[in-house]
Write a structure and sequence with these properties.
This protein has about 450 residues and is of the alpha/beta class. It contains 19 helices and 13 strands.
Amino acid sequence: MEKRAEKIRVVLVPLPLQGHITPIMQLGKALNLKGFSITVAQGECNQVSSSQHLSGFQFVTIPETVPVSQYERRPVEFVMKLNKTSEASFKDCIAQLLLQQGSDIACIIYDELMYFCGATAKEFNLPSIIFSTTTATHKFCCSVLSKLNSKKFLIDMQDPEVQDKEVENLHPLRYKDLPTSGMGPLEPYFELLREIIKKRTASAVIINTTSCLENSSLSWLQQELGIPVYPLGPLHILSSVKSSLLKEDKNCIEWLNKQKPKSVIYVSFGSLALMETKDVLEMVCGLFNSNQPFLLVIRPGSILGSEWIESLPEEVSKMVSKRGYIVKWAPQIEVLGHPALGGFWSHCGWNSTLESIVEGVPMICMPFIGEQKLNAKYIESVWRVGIKLEGEMERGGVERAVKRLIVDEESEGLRERAHVLREKLKASVRSGGSSYNALDELVKMLNFVHY
């Protein structure tokens, strides 16, 4: 008689980008702690390895036909090509897993941008769950946009009245706030959204958010999709995982130890944003003129035309040596939790936003593309824990924003609201909290669909 596997297996399929890998690995760790075995089906680029303290995880490779570097230039085209070319190899991968391990796969949980997984799950009669790395509000916005005609939308958006019209059920968002910027031509983007929003045969949707942040959007999304929606965030509190693709420079913690409490402005624009040399110069000058110590992350290759910071004038080095510290990549959660931190100047990616709110750190918002602009709107206007840097990068504007965030009277209210929100988020993952309960419900569902 064949012995049944000791643990039920869950297959995770991340999009091969840092901002998508991190939360799905955190989800994997949370499920592993609940007794599930985890298999991560990942591309050849941007791989997380088993050496990163992930016992109980198995890693398999799906051969890639689209270079990840294409995402920066043409994100929509990259995702659509990846989906068209990955389906066959993923089917082979699942067939191999079933052959090797019998029928212990309870579910395939896939990033919403890896929607080709839905067809494979259906073919092998396996349950599937969609994982969203963005907000419930963003997913609801995608649903709204997916129903629009791109040509008509472009014409309508030339009318200021339409731009300022509030989107139904999404107060305080207006049509001009819908996440369309930075995604290239609208028609292919809307076509992609139509693919993303399809449920296919998925049994549920998991979102890295919490009801205390997005109760209204979660309710509307549940109604729109008609399948269970599990808000499990913030996932980085539920389960800590080392999944950084870039080496973290821990020396910045020693520098932070020498700074006064709540004095430092931390600046990081995530793993994809690119900047011009002149904008980096204006930014550093503004930071220096604010008289606040600053910790600045500049990724290799993030300054256009430079390998790192060699294109910056010598005056930048002098300003940094007097008042700042530059790293190629920082241990962000550790930095945000440091007593010296007074504020976070961010691109407003959803992982960074959650990490900042959980530590009660107010933010300067400088979003680059649509989803980040949506997050910035909520940070500033709904949760009121940050301020938006408007217009072009200019040293005077930077100096004023830093002072507003850390020094001026306004900073007290921002910090107070950030602390209140922090406690709500931490309560959501404790026993009896909304995210804690949602994870329990998900575990019950996974056990049910398997047996």
